Amino acid sequence: MLRQIFVVSAINFKSLRQRLWRSLVIVVGMACVIGVLLSMLSLTEGMLAAYMKTGDPGRAIVVSTGAQGEGNSNISRDKARLIMDAPGIAKAPDSSPLADAGINSGVPVIRVNGRPAYDTLRGFGPKGVMLRPEFHMVSGRMFRAGTRELIVGVLAKTQFRNMNVGDKVILPDGEWPIVGSYTTGDLLDGQLIGDTETVMKAIRRPAYNSVLVRLASPSSFAGFKRALTTNPALAVDPYLQSEWYKKISEGFSTFFKVIAYGIGIIMGVGALFGCFNTMYAAVAARAREIATLRAIGYDAFPVAVSVILEAIALAVAGALIGALFAWTLYDGVDGAFGNSVFKLTVSPTLIGTAILWAIGVALLGGLLPSVRAARRPVVEALRAT
Amino acid sequence: MKYLPLVWAAIMRKPARAILTLLSVMVAFTLFGLTIGLNATFVKFSEMARADRIWTQQRFGGGGPSGGGMPRALVEQIGRIPGVSQVAGMGFVGGYHGDPKNRVFIWMVDDKLGKVFNEWEITPQQWDKVRANRRGLLISKIQAGRWHLKPGDNFTMTAPGLKKADGTNSWTFQVLEVTNEISFATDGFMMGNYDFYDKSRPLADQSRMVQMFIQTSNPDQSAALAQRIDATYASSATPLQSTTEKAALDVSNNGLDFITVDREIALAGMFMVLFLTANGIAQAVRERFAEFATLKTIGFSDWGVIGLVFAEAALPCILGAILGVGLAGLIAAMVPRVGQGIGGFPMPTVTGGVVLWAMLCAAIVALISSALPALRLKRMDIATALSGR
């Protein structure tokens, strides 16, 4: 049986050249579908990857109860102190808790295309860097605590104007110079960082937004959470930082995925009809050849399988072309949405999904024509011109 | 018209192929209708955005509900700036209803808002009701549908970042009226009474607002006026960020050029269809080459035959375009009712312009795909073709 499938398919593929143009309908159609699908998903994928990278499961973030973002969370100074005294927090070399109260504010900036936007200005306290081993200075120097200086992430300048070392950022109490640039490999790469207390004074904010802590061990989160949520003096929600970023990215990622896959499905249906069309024509063109095979003793099944295999091969070829397109155009390109800056990503997993998608369409599109090929009475087909 | 039966007969020679082609074309034009229709919505928004309004918020610290906000006195002060005719202010109560997943956002508006936005379909009587009832709410149909609310119902929500003077953060409103939608609130709206919001806050947080809407007397001067307002307050305790309504509502503000993305998606769909149609028509002509030779023999001119081929390509394209764009319109009308609106994302509008563009694209696709077969027919050697060689 397998040998028969192999032989029939081989004959099939050899004759593809005669049906080249017709077959290209599937290839081009699938390339369009996958090209569009992957281009759209590259945005979600890149943004999501940046969010996920920012969330370290070894850290916990504490926000006020019910807060849906750091921006609408409020942690007063006395509460921040209570949080940092909770059990389960790793210790710094000086045996103080490895925790940092942070501030998170929007700063009006101009996009490179001239549009107004907000970038995120983050405050780092004394432990801000120690908490984040992923943080490295790239050029210039670190801001000095207590001074009105900022450092900028390496990706900020790809989306916003005046984000280089030496540029100035306007804050309420004047222009703050950018004295250095850093990278963390995550969302912070698109942001600005200053000294928490100095930034708070400048934007006249009396309270912190959140507290970030390094957990003593992965298992200490439960105790940490219990201590905070059972303390009547606090009204806060602790999250593993990884869970927090998953939570705050859910809204947009579901939204974009619905849109991308919605469009993918619509285009996929269009391609499916094209696939039907081509495969019916292919079966018709090979009617005599198929009938001959059947006459000399080949089963109907290998004939049917060969038709589906042909559809799959064409669709996968198209998908690869589409994926190549999306990959060369978008993979690693700087992207932005809202105030998040990240790199668009066409990951191997995404390409794999796309190829499965193409195989699915080809299976559906090849099925009916293959049944017709297998069912057609041999004598009638042999007579056909 | 006379040759329509001829074209029809030609298409129906292979009904399966004809129907599949039509369906493919239809699907591509559904996508076309959705994407280009979405762009039409964006254009509509930007046309409805008024040049004589300025949106102002606090420059730093965002406009979040927990942000300190701007002093209420600014409404008076800015109202006195030459060129400003009216100023409205509002606060926000943002949070959730029951489950934190059920996000709610209520605009707490003052008396002036209805005057600054005089084009909204909210009657003076409706505004009066909100003024008279401190806990009152005007809600739009979308929101009424989402929370199953009717006039007279109470609506309670939790605003985590917004404490009241009584120490709680639970806010209870009463629905007064269900109103029509307003242009830019794509996810509907809920509007409450500013005084209720203000007096419910702790004393230290009172007399503050999060957003101002400024009506100008000269639309041409709005952008300059916005800059002047920001400059005036640049070194005050609350620096301001003012933009014209047009700029504030621009879709590309979020960093993604939706309009171009939409066009590219539509284009990809068209390319798919072009390839499909071109292929189909080329094959049809190849199969019936001898027949075309016969037509020429009995007196059809070159252009007559080419016209027939074009019509054969154009018919499914035009028909598919009409059906597809129609389907897109249907989908755009259904989706907001089925889902809870996907985060208030605007729905496509299938305008006359969209239909026209679709027709034009269909015609272009038909023209390009029949070009090569037409050339072959024009150059055909009738004798050879007739002999079937």
Written account of the structure:
- The complex is a heterodimer of chains A (385) and B (389).
- Chain A has 385 residues and is of the alpha+beta class.
- Chain A has two domains: 2-52 and 249-383, no CATH class; 66-234, no CATH class.
- Chain A is built from eleven helices and twelve strands.
- Chain A has helices spanning 2-14, 20-54, 77-84, 156-159, 196-202, 221-229, 241-285, 287-295, 300-330, 348-375, 378-383, and strands at residues 59-64, 99-110, 116-124, 136-140, 150-153, 168-171, 174-183, 192-195, 210-214, 236-240, 334-337, 340-343.
- The longest helix of chain A is centred in the last third of the chain and has 45 residues, at 241-285.
- Chain A is elongated, with a radius of gyration of 29 Å.
- By secondary structure, chain B is an alpha+beta fold.
- Chain B folds into two domains: 4-47 and 255-386, no CATH class; 50-248, no CATH class.
- Chain B has helices at 4-11, 15-48, 73-79, 113-116, 124-132, 141-147, 194-200, 222-232, 245-248, 258-287, 289-297, 302-338, 352-379, 382-386; strands at 53-58, 70-71, 84-96, 103-109, 136-140, 154-158, 170-179, 190-193, 208-209, 211-216, 240-244.
- Chain B has a nine-stranded mixed sheet with strand order 6-7-5-8-4-3-10-1-11, with helices on both faces.
- The longest helix of chain B has 37 residues, at 302-338.
- Chain B is elongated.
- The model of chain B is unreliable at 63-67 (pLDDT under 50).
- At the A-B interface, helix 2, strand 2, strand 3, helix 7 and strand 11 of A face helix 2, strand 3 and helix 10 of B.
Labels describing this entry:
heterodimer, A: 385 residues, alpha+beta, 10-stranded mixed β-sheet, 19% strand, B: 389 residues, 2 domains, elongated
User: What proportion of the residues of chain B form beta strands (DSSP E)?
Assistant: 15-25%
Q: Structural class of chain B, please?
A: alpha+beta
Question: For the report, how would you describe the main beta sheet of chain B?
Answer: 9 strands, mixed
Strands across the major sheet of chain B, in which order?
Answer: 6-7-5-8-4-3-10-1-11
Number of E strands of chain B: 11
